[in-house]
């Protein structure tokens, strides 16, 4: 059975990006290596929230729902389970497959 992920990424300045994928590890890697123009431009690379489902239609609907929310509501969702805005990818990604969060680099 396939899993689908709806996720929220954030920059250090808390600029947000909402997305959906069937492979969260691969997608985080793509965001962190600059494959995605928007997240690369604004250094939005920290995984701060994600949800899973086995239903692809539900995942897409949830992504659209979250994208329609006001910023304050998205922040409340993130802070409900992740008040420190910790990078959740550090726990999810295998150590050998991690790409360091580029937003932590100086310059």
Strand content: 15-25%
Counting H and I runs of at least 4 residues, what is the number of helices?
Answer: 5
**The CATH class:** Alpha Beta
Going by helix content, strand content and strand pairing, the class is alpha+beta
Helix content: 25-40%
**In what order do the strands lie side by side in the largest sheet?**
2-1-3
Shape: globular
What count of domains describes the coordinates?
1
Major β-sheet annotation: 3 strands, antiparallel
Report the order of strands and helices: EEHHEHHH
Q: What is the radius of gyration computed over CA atoms, rounded to a whole number of angstroms?
A: 13 Å
Round the mean pLDDT to the nearest integer and report it.
89
Extract low-pLDDT stretches: none
Output the CATH homologous superfamily.
GIY-YIG endonuclease
CATH topology: GIY-YIG endonuclease
Report what the structure shows.
The chain has helices spanning 24-32, 37-41, 56-68, 71-81, 89-92, and strands at 4-10, 16-21, 46-53. The protein has 107 residues and is of the alpha+beta class. The chain has a single domain (4-99), classed as GIY-YIG endonuclease. The protein is globular, with a radius of gyration of 13 Å.
